[in-house]
Design goal:
There is one protein chain. This protein is mainly α and 277 residues long. Among the domains are: 44 residues; 134 residues, Intergrase catalytic core (hpI Integrase, Chain A). Helices cover 49% and strands 9% of the residues. The protein has a 3-stranded antiparallel sheet with strand order 1-2-3, with no helix packed on it. A two-stranded antiparallel ribbon has the order 4-5. The longest helix is centred in the first third of the chain and has 17 residues. It is globular and about 60 Å long.
Amino acid sequence: MFLDIARYQAERLEKGAAPKTINLEVGTLRAILRRNRLWASIQPDVRMLRVSEDVGRAISREEEATLLEACRASRSRSLFPAVLIALNTCMRYSELRLLKWAQVDLNSCTLTVGHSKTQAGTGRLLPLNDRAVAILGFWASLFPGHKPIHFVFPAERYGASGDGATVIYESDPTKPIGRWKEAWESAKKRAGVSCRFHDLRHTGCTRMLEAGVPFSVVATIMGWSPSTTVRMSRRYGHIGQSIQRHAVNALKEAGIRDDGAQNWAQSHRLHPILCPL
């Protein structure tokens, strides 16, 4: 049986499935076999695939501007607001796709996340910045009859008219949009920007940390589980170290360096070490 699992893994890899996805699928099979007491005999021979720990990359402000312009020109009218909200809330793809109007409160400038990947992420309350409020307010104006149970990004059929303008043939607010994959890939190609949709979340996280937001606060916004928070603290550690460096350098404003430390070093014929900012 373990040979069948190995063949399955190879076939899924050949079809382009991610190692993490394949491991989850094998994990489901493992649970079934364990329940039927069949897993123990093959466990030593089953090898889970190595998963890359690449956290992704943060796009620059220039790349963001170019990408947003390409998204604005997309025939998928929901792509631009979706990307803009992703950048400004750090929401996951599925959280954004399944968002309902009942979860959005423009009066209090907050958004409540629905079902999420983690228990910590489900139901978390996100504050909305001015940029997110503006685009959500504009998007809501396009659906004057929307109800709380309706999806923010409804399933739509669209095409191009004779003059090249986008025409919405059908919109069903009771169903969420299927995916943005084709529109997203086309927009990236036009913009000449290479990134994943998930990198929008990574971008927002990186910018908050670079701005000095405490890691504990960032973790609640991101909706990380406790174990993920520990893992992410290692991945984003270089950003935290930079902020810590600026923090301790602020101490010299109190005159600590001129309070005898340099004189002591010179009296002992030592060269004071000046750390970079």
